[in-house]
Amino acid sequence: MKTGKNARQELILRLIREKDISTQEDLTRLVREAGFEATQATCSRDIKELGIIKITLPNKTTKYAVLDRTGDVAPGRLLAVFSNSLVSVQAAMNILVIKTLPGMAQAAASALDSMHLQDVVGTIAGDDTVFCAASGIDEAKALVMTISDMMDRGTSADGTV
């Protein structure tokens, strides 16, 4: 059995990028099948350290996605800034209107951009409001669910932010 943390985390990133994985149980099973010693708690810690988030797709299913690093800022830290600065989110057709704490919109937009979510076309930030263009109306609704989930849960240990 392989035990290296770095190798295990590299595998987890590859699995998340290549497969639609929606539960820690599925991820833990795939990591074990690849020959690594892993428990659900181990995978949970890895999810948080690696900045992996759970997103809602337009068809209302969920899956894990990798939050890419921006400069030298750790993904988990960026997620914390994002989720802790949000006040509300709602869709207006394919545009999300995200309200933040005063002065936090640019940081929130930067964090959202760094997530490289497939259906985010781009963001514009003011002082306490972010406009986020989604690729379509259904995609905007799914993004509202993903972002609302982040607001509701904060950065939890299970990576569902």
Give a quick summary of the entry:
The chain has 161 residues and is of the alpha+beta class. It has helices spanning 5-18, 24-33, 40-50, 75-85, 105-114, 137-153; strands spanning 52-56, 62-66, 86-92, 95-100, 120-125, 129-134. The chain has two domains: 5-50; 75-153, Gyrase A, domain 2, CATH 3.30.1360.
Task: Write a structural description.
Helix 2 crosses helix 3 (40-50) and helix 4 (75-85) packs across helix 5. The protein folds into 2 domains: 5-50; 75-153, Gyrase A, domain 2, CATH 3.30.1360.40. The protein is α+β, with helices and mostly antiparallel strands and 161 residues long. It has 6 helices and 6 strands. The protein is elongated and about 50 Å long.
Question: Are there runs of 5+ residues with pLDDT below 50, and where?
Answer: 155-161
> Can you tell me the CATH architecture of the largest domain?
2-Layer Sandwich
Tell me the structural class.
alpha+beta
* Secondary-structure element order, N to C: HHHEEHEEHEEH
Query: How many domains make up the coordinates?
Result: 2
- Number of beta-strand segments: 6
- What is the fold named in CATH at topology level of the largest domain? Gyrase A, domain 2
Overall residue-averaged pLDDT value: 85
Strand content: 15-25%
Number of helices: 6
Oligomer designation: single chain
Inertia-based shape: elongated
DSSP helix fraction: 40-55%
